[in-house]
Write a structure and sequence with these properties.
Elements lengths: L3 E2 L2 E2 L3 E5 L6 E5 L9 E2 L2 H6 L3 E5 L3 E5 L4 E4 L7 E5 L5 E5 L6 E5 L16 E2 L5 H4 L2
Parallel strand pairs: 5-12
Antiparallel strand pairs: 1-2, 3-4, 4-7, 6-11, 8-9, 9-10, 10-11
The protein binds zinc ion.
């Protein structure tokens, strides 16, 4: 359970925003930052974000719902949201667990993801949902 990154305490209700500030989210993080990871799937490889998980009820869009765009590919299960003004990925509804969002750790207010230390790599090339045959 990660309750602090660098000098920034992770609050139970922590704000997150895109780069231009048009999109503002409120994340409910009673357990801090859960399951931070990188992923090497074809999208994450390009995007480069460190992602953590929250239940769907754990993200509330405070501002900018109208500028958020959704990107889907491959099985079109996951929904990847990004700001249409600055292009920053904010969150996505997960494919391996559609009851959860993943979110861009770097969007959390005051958080520098480079202060997180070592982050596990998820095997996105061999996606968990493709292995369940
Ligand atoms: Zn933006």
């Amino acid at each position: 359970m990660i309750k602090r990154i660098g000098n920034t305490p992770i609050q139970e209700r922590h704000k997150a925003s895109c780069h231009c500030g048009a999109v503002v989210l409120e994340l409910t993080l009673p357990d801090g930052v859960v399951d931070p990871r990188r992923c090497d799937c074809s999208l994450c490889r390009r995007r480069g974000a460190i992602v953590a998980s929250v239940p769907l009820a754990g993200i509330r869009i405070l501002q900018g719902e109208d500028v958020l765009r959704c990107y889907q590919f491959n099985t079109r299960t996951a929904k990847h949201y990004f700001c249409s003004i600055c292009g920053i990925y904010t969150h996505h509804q997960r494919r391996s667990n559609p009851a959860q969002y993943g979110y861009n750790l770097a969007c959390l207010e005051g958080v520098n993801p480079f202060e997180l230390g070592e982050v596990p790599l998820l095997d996105g090339i061999n996606h968990p949902a493709d292995r369940l045959v």
